[in-house]
Each structure stands twice: as structure tokens, then as C-alpha cells.
Design goal:
single chain; 351 residues; alpha+beta; Nucleotidyltransferase, domain 5; 5-stranded mixed β-sheet; 4-stranded antiparallel β-sheet; 9 helices; globular; Reverse transcriptase Ty1/copia-type domain-containing protein
Length: 351
């Protein structure tokens, strides 16, 4: 068997793919007999416990490092953490309100963190920083495993771990409360009948211009494989953008390296051809990418970045499409949204 390039815990041959997780192992195969041969080999050297051989068409459930996976052959795969969160969240000493009205969004729209000076002594400061590290640490683990709808709030609060003001702590408690209220949510991948002989990998990008301290912009990307959400990223732009268009260009440019890495991984696991696409709700960014006139960019602050983005799109054979703002699910990665909008953009993939 060969190690999959870029993913050192995955090995495969023409019949079987093996994923290693500490002392757990998952086998994926095209033929059940191939699984049995691997298991027979393992039993010769190791004390091997079989959780499920894959023979049943009923729903299979198992836990991997707190991530609860439910799978039914040819129907769906669901990822969640309800049991884990039910156990861990009450131990954080956050004032949860289990019997009160449930929160419908992880934060309030238009609510941004003030940079007021902290007025606390050293011991209290250390205590609050430690509390923030504990809360955001757990939230990050959950968010990057499958709750991509929380990543904007997680990233924004993570930027303020060393600034534990009353407002920051209240917003963190609100996030934890929302995680408690929605701990039964799952990321669901439904089985689709293959309609084309290739895989389609798409990055949807968005940016919120100047909405972070010191006029930094928040950028976000969501990645889909054959229409299923498989990852997300929300981060503060490293550069101070001078316009909405520049922020959108930055967001699209940030998506390309990860899109390419995911493309290599998918092709290692599945030799089918792959189509890579970028979706943005910025018509000006699309116009820049498709433009053949370099002169009009020479006097712009972001001219060099715009030209580099055009070269990256061309060199990586990426397709670029426009997506309506009201359908852009990456919007949840860049700003706090009204409840109705937040639910509309997330309910199709987190429910």
C-alpha cells in the first residue's frame, strides 16, 4: 500500500483505503472481501477488535476522537458531536440556560468588539485569558471538525483571547450557549447518483471590507466537493485593504492554495478527472480576473495582486463564476448576520 501524498495517516491501493486515527482504523473498499483480507493480516500481528465489518445495510454509528459519524450505505453520512458536547459544555462553567429560549444565531448582527482599555488586575487578567483559551479551544475543535457555520465567531473571538473584556467574554458565552442549543446539529452528506465522469471541487469566497479593528477586512471561504460542504476558513486579512474589490480579491486569492491542495488529495484518492471552480459575488473581481487589459490596473493600489490572481486562475485552470449574494453561503464566514439570513444560508448543510 502507498501513503497518500499530503495526508500521512491515509494509505491505499487499488481496492482499499485505510485511515488511521491514533489507535483506531477505518477501511474503505470496493469489495467486502478486500476488507476481510486486510483484517486477517492485521490479526496475525495485532489484537484487533472489529467494530463493524460493513456487511449490514442498516445505519452504522461510531465515534472518532469525539466526532460522531453515522453512515448508511448508498444513502448518507452524518457528522456530529451531540454526545461529546452534552458532556463537555456544562463542565466549562459557562452560565448555560438549558430551559430558556434557544438562541437562533451565534451572534448579533452589527455587533462588533470595542477596543476599550482593560481595567483589571494581573491575577484577574490571567484567569480570564485562561478561561478564553479553554472556551475558544473547544469551540475551535468543534468548528473545524464540522461546524463551519461558527468559524467567523470563533476566529474573531480567538483574535481577542489576550483582550478578555466584559464584552468579549459575553460574546464568547453567547457562542457557547448557541453551541449548547444546537449540539444536535449535524453536517450531512447525502448520496447522489453520479451524473458526470468527473469530480467537481469548488471554493465559494466572500469578504467583509474594513469590519475588523484597525480597518482590517474579514475574509472567508467554503469548500465543496460534488456539491457537499467539506471545509471552511474564516480569517482576518493580513493586509489592510483599500476597497471592497481589493478585499474580495484577497479572499479569492487566499482560497486558491487550499483549493489546489484539496484537488491533489482528491485525485490521490480517486483518479477521476477534477474540475476546479471559484464562486464570488463580486462582479468587479470576476471582471479583473477575465480582463486582458493590464493598463487600467497600473494606477491601482492592488494592481499587482489583481494581476497575480489572474495568473493564478489561468495557470491552475480554474473556472470563475458569479454567485448571488443571497445565495453566497461564505457570507456566514465574514460577518454576523440576521437570524433569517444565517438560517437560510446554513440550513441546507448543517441541520
Amino acid at each position: 500500500m502507498q501513503e497518500v501524498r499530503g495526508w500521512s495517516c491515509v494509505f491505499k491501493n487499488s481496492q482499499v483505503t485505510i485511515c488511521l486515527f491514533v489507535d483506531d482504523m477505518i477501511l474503505f473498499s470496493k469489495d467486502l472481501n478486500a476488507n476481510k483480507k486486510i483484517i486477517t493480516t492485521l490479526k496475525k500481528q495485532y489484537d484487533t477488535k472489529i467494530i463493524n465489518l460493513g456487511e449490514s445495510d442498516n445505519e452504522i454509528q461510531y465515534d472518532i476522537l469525539g466526532l460522531e459519524i453515522k453512515y448508511q450505505r448508498s444513502k448518507y453520512m452524518k457528522l456530529g458531536m451531540e454526545k461529546s458536547l452534552t458532556e463537555k459544555l456544562p463542565k466549562l462553567n459557562v452560565p448555560l440556560n438549558p430551559k430558556g429560549k434557544k438562541l437562533r444565531a451565534p451572534g448579533q448582527p452589527g455587533h462588533y468588539i470595542d477596543q476599550d482599555e482593560l481595567e483589571i488586575d494581573e491575577d484577574e487578567y490571567k484567569e480570564k485569558v485562561h478561561e478564553m483559551q479553554k472556551l475558544i479551544g473547544l469551540a475551535s475543535y468543534v468548528g473545524y471538525k464540522f461546524r463551519f457555520d461558527l468559524l467567523y465567531y470563533i476566529n474573531t473571538l480567538a483574535q481577542h483571547i489576550l483582550f478578555p473584556s466584559r464584552q468579549v467574554l459575553d460574546m464568547t458565552y453567547e457562542l457557547i450557549q448557541f453551541m449548547w442549543d444546537t449540539r444536535d446539529k449535524q453536517l450531512i452528506w447525502h448520496k447522489n447518483k453520479p451524473t458526470k465522469p468527473d469530480n467537481k471541487l469548488v471554493a465559494i469566497s466572500d469578504a467583509s471590507y474594513g469590519n475588523q479593528p484597525y480597518y482590517k477586512s474579514q475574509i472567508g471561504n467554503i469548500f465543496l466537493l460534488n456539491g457537499k460542504v467539506i471545509g471552511g476558513k474564516s480569517t482576518k486579512a493580513s493586509l489592510t485593504c483599500t476597497s471592497t474589490t481589493e478585499a474580495e480579491i484577497h479572499a479569492v486569492s487566499e482560497a486558491i492554495p487550499l483549493l489546489n491542495n484539496l484537488s491533489h488529495l482528491v485525485q490521490e484518492l480517486n483518479k477521476k478527472p477534477i474540475i476546479k471552480g471559484l464562486l464570488t459575488d463580486s462582479r468587479s473581481t470576476i471582471s479583473i480576473i477575465k480582463s486582458t487589459n493590464e493598463e487600467k490596473f497600473r494606477n491601482r493600489f492592488f494592481g499587482t495582486k489583481a494581476m497575480r490572481l489572474r495568473d493564478e486562475v489561468s495557470g491552475n485552470n480554474l473556472y470563475v463564476y458569479y454567485i448571488e449574494t443571497k445565495k453566497n453561503i461564505a457570507d456566514v464566514m465574514t460577518k454576523p448576520l440576521p437570524i433569517k439570513t444565517f438560517k437560510l444560508l446554513t440550513n441546507k448543510w448543517i441541520h
